Amino acid sequence: MKRFVVVGHLAATSGTFSLNDLPGSAGRMDILCRCINSSLFLSHDLRRDVECYLILRGAPDPEKTVLFRGSAVRYLSPDERSSAALIKKALSIPCGDEFRESTPGVYVRRGGLSRILSEIPFAVLDEAGEDIRGVPVLPEAYLLSDHQNFTPEDQEMLEGRDRYSVGPLSLHADHTITVLLNEMDRRESGWMSSKR
Amino acid sequence: MKRFVVVGHLAATSGTFSLNDLPGSAGRMDILCRCINSSLFLSHDLRRDVECYLILRGAPDPEKTVLFRGSAVRYLSPDERSSAALIKKALSIPCGDEFRESTPGVYVRRGGLSRILSEIPFAVLDEAGEDIRGVPVLPEAYLLSDHQNFTPEDQEMLEGRDRYSVGPLSLHADHTITVLLNEMDRRESGWMSSKR
Question: Which residues bind S-adenosyl-L-methionine (chains A, B) (predicted)?
Fold first, then answer.
């Protein structure tokens, strides 16, 4: 299973935000929506072997985690508004300590980065990391940040983790996921070696 | 200058569409908006050496072309609604045979694919094409389609053009642009060879 965790530093933790203002009052929720898109969509198909975890850290509640599971998700279209509507629904149901399904394949629970780091061994996507193309065996799970850098407290939690980079320029989180999945696709299918 | 042309088979040719229904009444305009995003955005920066041409073929008018120029564009944010709002403005001004600027860095004119193919030698992004990683010198200009395939008439116009593929799976147009730009970034910076 491939897994991506994206930290949304300002992302709303209540379902009261407007679908017409994802970058503003929803706390750059548009970035997280594009990460759902790049994690899960193929042309006319879904990546059923991918899970995408969104860590929401904005107002008004303490951190929450929303999970989209490619194997189970329904009612999801590629546009930002579609994934935002499913996030909004997830944030509108009572939120406990364990994942609870809000719509098929979408789940929500309390807690954020420190909890998920204790559960899954995520590598970190970082401009200063090792080139993914040169790594003999790529990890299956990756952590990314939205438009803001990881906080000093996050960096402390992440110390010692493997760090990987997808290219020479600093990219948006969703673009980074797309490039990484392309490298994984090539390796899984043996496409690169046979075509080069 | 890097150039991308994306054909929107159903994309609205008038500025009357609703920003709240980009996939529906605007004719999958969300796809074209994501192509603007992937063509032009870096993290906290713009790709100033990229132009993205959108060929709009939907109702109610004959084909129009909207151009976003990375070197000049303003008022553009990464979210779909932002680029859609600039497209809507472009479609709301009188449209002539030559490009006319609607907002800084955004232009509109009459005409579509056949005209632009006569002006710029676009290669075609095609799942059956040659792997971009194996191509010694990559072209600078590429043609892509939205969720629909090129029509038989289009295919006839495109006969004999070089065809390239970015990977073993069929991807959305915006993801394809992201992967291609990553390959170009690596080559331009010499990053790949120095890091491997």
Answer: 125
